[in-house]
Amino acid sequence: xxxxxxxxxxxxxxxxxxxxxxxxxxxxxxxxxxxxxxxxxxxxxxxxxxxxxxxxxxxxxxxxxxxxxxxxxxxxxxxxxxxxxxxxxxxxxxxxxxxxxxxxxxxxxxxxxxxxxxxxxxxxxxxxxxxxxxxxxxxxxxxxxxxxxxxxxxxxxxxxxxxxxxxxxxxxxxxxxxxxxxxxxxxxxxxxxxxxxxxxxxxxxxxxxxxxxxxxxxxxxxxxxxxxxxxxxxxxxxxxxxxxxxxxxxxxxxxxxxxxxxxxxxxxxxxxxxxxxxxxxxxxxxxxxxxxxxxxxxxxxxxxxxxxxxxxxxxxxxxxxxxxxxxxxxxxxxxxxxxxxxxxxxxxxxxxxxxxxxxxxxxxxxxxxxxxxxxxxxxxxxxxxxxxxxxxxxxxxxxxxxxxxxxxxxxxxx
Length: 414
Known about the structure:
Elements: E1 5-10, H1 19-28, E2 32-37, H2 47-54, H3 70-77, E3 80-86, H4 88-96, H5 102-109, E4 114-118, H6 122-126, H7 128-139, E5 143-144, E6 148-151, E7 157-161, H8 165-178, E8 190-195, E9 200-201, E10 207-208, H9 215-226, E11 230-235, E12 248-251, H10 255-265, E13 271-274, E14 281-283, E15 305-307, H11 311-320, E16 329-336, H12 344-355, E17 359-364, E18 375-382, E19 387-394, H13 395-413
Parallel strand pairs: 1-2, 1-3, 3-4, 4-5, 8-11, 8-13, 11-12, 13-16, 16-17
Antiparallel strand pairs: 6-7, 9-10, 14-15, 17-18, 18-19
Helix pairs in contact: 1-2, 1-8, 3-5, 4-7, 9-13
């Protein structure tokens, strides 16, 4: 990605210390970053920290470097503005259109995407005044992230925690890659996403698994939540990924557990995104105790396998039988390789017909492709016969393109 000019606004809250990591990650990605804090933010983190990390001067008022007219020029020149943390007070001042410091003046002059990462106590986040301010900012085209839930100041817990720096910078990079705002077009849509690989126990130590990291499924959940959807994520083995902010997460281990979780949540969902890599087979009789290797020559143990339920095909059948009355879109994922019978797309088209889902995302797998990497590509196949390429990009960018297609599909169902 070419070097972009990013403004990181920092409001006065205890989470201001996390802004230092946001600045570092964006500068390490090759972007030009300037930090514009409020006066109260500097009570939590000093200007020297932000200057050292960004390589640019830090000011809070409109009377520094007046000859450069910073209260106008900074916003005009920006490719992206990120405010992290965005406190209740900052959101209120931005909504009203105040320009009483350098940050709010910058927000008024910026014509680029603006990303707010809220951080405040739960009562403040849920207060009708804040809810109205957030709705107004979103209506104007700003992106207001859903906050995380967790430990707040003191002993309090709940929604209002600043999302992790990695989530903020990932969404910032997506906005730069899209070169436009992220639409808030899925409000009221309930989405069920599965991600990661399942593990089928052989004994208490060993299991049958796969190489899925869960990164693509997590990206799908993250993007859909930030576009307004009410997202539930069923996560298998996800290699310690950060649970997406604003998403309800259920962790499972085996294919049977994933199937049961999907069965529980699917009746309320409008969209099912089956990005998990579900094991096709499991050991018929998992050993209670560890299988011992034993001396050489004693023979090798045999593991009998049985077929797991096809969760995706089961959801399609359940919808056809009227058991999922709210389900409008079912999206499958397929990791494929070519063989003597045909190439990746040949097998993908056959799988789409066999599964019966509305959309199928297809990835060609191989060395450094699809699994355990941060980038992806592939194809998006539709039940109506249309096909489109998903050009190479970060898994978040790929997720955004897939969500664009899902949103378009939902509009045809309305």
